[in-house]
Design brief:
248 residues, alpha+beta, 2 domains, 9 helices, 5 strands
Length: 248
Amino acid sequence: MTEQFFDVEDKVEEEEAVETTPVYGSQEWHDYIMEKFEKRELIDGNPTCAGLRRVAEDVLGSIIVSRPSQVFPSTDNNGPGRATVVFEVVFDWMDSGQMRTFSDVADVWHGNTDDLFCAHPVATASTRAEGRALRKALKIRCLSAEELTRKKDIESIVRESVNSTKTVDGEWKEDDTISNPQTNFIDTKCKQLDINVLNFINSGSEKYDSIGDVSKKKASQMLSILNEYQTKKRDISDDIKGYDSNWR
């Protein structure tokens, strides 16, 4: 009788565990996944790539393929330069025999990477791209630890870079329309943070029909806000979430 009682109790616990597992991608899913990371796999609340890999296999199924599918190394002979890597991860989905592929891209240059890792741009870009692919597969709303830059003021570096575009007379004018580098940077950061670009640029007091109506000065302020989102100095409101690649 005693053994039978424990068998029933164990069965009830198993059923409760199944019932508490949220639906993949549901509102409760993010918190459910984040609780699975061990303390050593988190840096300031952001999971490492190794941690993402472990949890992904534990939850989603065996990883069959994990590799860079495209590599664009730096062509700068005088420094580390910029490297871009596309990384793909193939899962045996829930170990069912059905394959699912997730991929993402990352680039590394001196403005978005700490010097220690900037010296190895291809390897660093590969790790970042893998982390992004795993985040996409796990459907979690945070950056991987390797995507963060802690020892550099990215906003100042990017501001100097994107604001360096000159007019015909050689002077930078803040009332001129947004430059292409500014536009591309806003798009890149919104994609990384899962932010809707058009909702973001219209989240202030001024409203725009398109990003081409934004001035360079205003774009520079937007870059500062995106940097605060990335460093978690400012919370991302729900009404601007949801990146749409067809926003242009």
